[in-house]
Amino acid sequence: IDLDTNIFDEVEKQVEDWANKKEQEVAKYKTWAEYRRRFVGDISHELKTPIFIMQSYLDTLLDGAWKDEQLCQKFLQKVSKSAERLNTIVQDLEAIAKLESGEMLLDMRNFDVRKLTQDVFEELEMQAKQSNIQLSFKDGAASPYRVFADEDKIRQVLINLINNSIKYGNPNGKTKVSFYDMDRHVLIEVADNGIGIPAEHIPHVFDRFYRVDKSRSREQGGSGLGLSIVKHIIEVHKQTINVRSTQGLGSTFGFTLEKAK
């Protein structure tokens, strides 16, 4: 026993440390409890809409509308669209769960991210034309930009960001992708001159089910999980993503990738 040590001071310190630890545990639990409550509420709300639509059309068909062949076809198409949205929500939830738990393994390889972006442009070309949106590279982005990442996952990131720029773009608008050499990293930016995001919404754009314009978002389809998945994919790569936006002028999403060695 160290007689120079005041045992009461030592006990008091241990009790204080224990109390602080428990206080932190309680705060963490409250945070997770609130997160869980919000998440359950959000997913219930998102699932409720397509289920209600499906049930309404099916009930109408069962009440006799099936006898009208044209009306029956129209209602079944509506049901199919709602079922497709439900499937998208479930698949995106599964993807987020795997990303958060670390179950989703990355297939890291060297590839040209500019070429990958060109492939995504071609994949979304028809959708862009329907919305009168021009997809292009910013001046100076002609050379290859080789990165070290999971090509399929980065394709998913680019599809989501470019698809969003089309959805929320203005007629005859533009979406431009640019690349910047940053020593050991490459910065990729997807910029549009669309409707933009109000300042108060910017901190929440990567939250699950968060929609800046709820009516327009649901009309355009999707699960409301796309940007959350994008953020998870970039973070699993140990990289960063950010957004700059001015309402009425457009938005720019930028993320980094490790440069190929």
Explained architecture:
By secondary structure, the chain is an alpha+beta fold. The protein folds into 2 domains: 8-101, Signal transduction histidine kinase, dimerisation/phosphotransfer (DHp) domain (Helix Hairpins); 109-258, 2-Layer Sandwich (Heat Shock Protein 90). The protein is 54% helix and 18% strand. It has helices at 7-62, 69-101, 113-123, 125-130, 151-167, 214-220, 226-236, and strands at residues 108-112, 134-137, 146-150, 174-182, 185-192, 241-246, 250-258. Strands 2-4-5-7-6 form a 5-stranded mixed sheet. A two-stranded antiparallel ribbon has the order 1-3. A hairpin with a 3-residue loop joins β6 (241-246) and β7. α1 (7-62) runs antiparallel to α2, α2 (69-101) runs parallel beside α7 and α5 (151-167) packs antiparallel against α7. The longest helix has 56 residues, at 7-62. The termini are far apart. The model has no long low-confidence stretch (mean pLDDT 82).
Outline:
The protein is an alpha+beta fold and 261 residues long.
Which terms would index this structure?
261 residues, alpha+beta, Helix Hairpins, Heat Shock Protein 90, 2 domains, two-stranded antiparallel ribbon, 18% strand, globular
Helices and strands in order, then pairings?
Layout: H1 7-62, H2 69-101, E1 108-112, H3 113-123, H4 125-130, E2 134-137, E3 146-150, H5 151-167, E4 174-182, E5 185-192, H6 214-220, H7 226-236, E6 241-246, E7 250-258
Parallel strand pairs: 2-4
Antiparallel strand pairs: 1-3, 4-5, 5-7, 6-7
Going by helix content, strand content and strand pairing, the class is alpha+beta
What is the CATH domain class of the largest domain? Alpha Beta
Query: DSSP helix count?
Result: 7
Q: Look at the structure and name the CATH superfamily of the largest domain.
A: Histidine kinase-like ATPase, C-terminal domain
Sequence of secondary-structure elements? HHEHHEEHEEHHEE
Q: How many domains make up the 3D coordinates?
A: 2
Taken as a percent bin, the fraction of beta residues is 15-25%
**What is the CATH fold-level name of the largest domain?**
Heat Shock Protein 90
Overall pLDDT level: 82
| Shape annotation | globular
Give the CATH architecture of the largest domain. 2-Layer Sandwich
The radius of gyration computed from the alpha-carbon positions, rounded to a whole number of angstroms, is 24 Å
**Biggest sheet details:** 5 strands, mixed
